[in-house]
Amino acid sequence: MVAWIERYFYAPTFVQRLLSWLLLPLSALYCGVLYVRFLRSRPRALGVPVVSIGNLTVGGSGKTPLVSALAQVYARPAIVLRGYGRQSRGLFVVHDGVRTLCDVHTSGDEAMVYAHKVPHAVVIVSEDRLRGIEAAIELGCGIVFLDDGYSKHGIEKLDILIDVETPNSFCLPSGPYRERHWSGKEALHVRENEGFMRRTHLRDARSSMVLVTAIARPERLDAFLPEVCAKHYFPDHHYFTRTELEAILHQSGAQSLLVTYKDYVKIADFGLSLSLLDLSLEVAPELFEAVEAYRKSRSDKV
């Protein structure tokens, strides 16, 4: 089902295109509601510079490594995210800038990746981003990075949007767009291979590896993969069991499971043989400069 939806959004067949057109009235209603919500919003300064990194479409776009790269350069940043796929509700401080305070089931996989990748950052999960930002201020953070916060129109912030190419340009449910870049709302658009470049590092490689991953649009990994004996795709944010992974290792005859960092944080304690495909970004200086210019402009008003 997941693969069908991804094809429908990003590489539709003729039948899928026809279905997309039939659903256009629902898309128009959906987009209209979101536009009215945007028009009624009034951005409010919260006493700290806020930078949102996300994309307008469903599925992966590289926002997690981009947030990590941008947050790295600041002394005490906060990363605030919803924590999609976590087995908890409410606000949790996942990492206080020194130590991790909860497990991956409480935090969700993406928040735990941030705790590993940006160990000096405060990482907070909260469905209510406003509360999350307030908690970051209380913890003494000087800048807040919102993971996927474009739709939070009531928060004054710098919006960075990662553009994802797709032949289907409609809003849900006809297409992959969760929201439009509304006229009158400023945002900085970036593209892979222009605003940032992906870099891969293969750790603990084995001569025989089987790919196991639970990320959105896993075909994005193909350009970076070493030779693998098989590929196993699971739904985004899937929580693996040791038994299912042991079965894959046994069935494939591979020496190790090849995983991304998002998978690794959920299975590192299983004691299985793992190889890590670690993705990082080389970010254009202009993007760092834009974030710093915004931070200074907001800090002067605090």
Largest sheet: 7 strands, mixed
Summed up, the domain count is 2
CATH class of the largest domain: Alpha Beta
The end-to-end distance, rounded to whole angstroms, is 48 Å
Q: Helicity range of the residues? A: 25-40%
Q: What would you say about this model in short?
A:
The chain is an alpha/beta fold and 302 residues long. 33% of the residues lie in helices and 21% in strands.
Can you walk me through this structure?
- With 302 residues, the chain is an alpha/beta fold.
- The chain folds into two domains: 175 residues, Rossmann fold (3-Layer(aba) Sandwich), CATH 3.40.50; 83 residues, Rossmann fold.
- 33% of the residues lie in helices and 21% in strands.
- The chain contains ten helices and twelve strands.
- The protein has a seven-stranded mixed β-sheet, sandwiched between helices.
- Helix 9 links the parallel strand 11 and strand 12.
- Helix 6 crosses helix 9.
- The longest helix is centred in the first third of the chain and has 17 residues.
- It is globular and about 60 Å long.
- The termini are far apart.
- The mean pLDDT is 94.
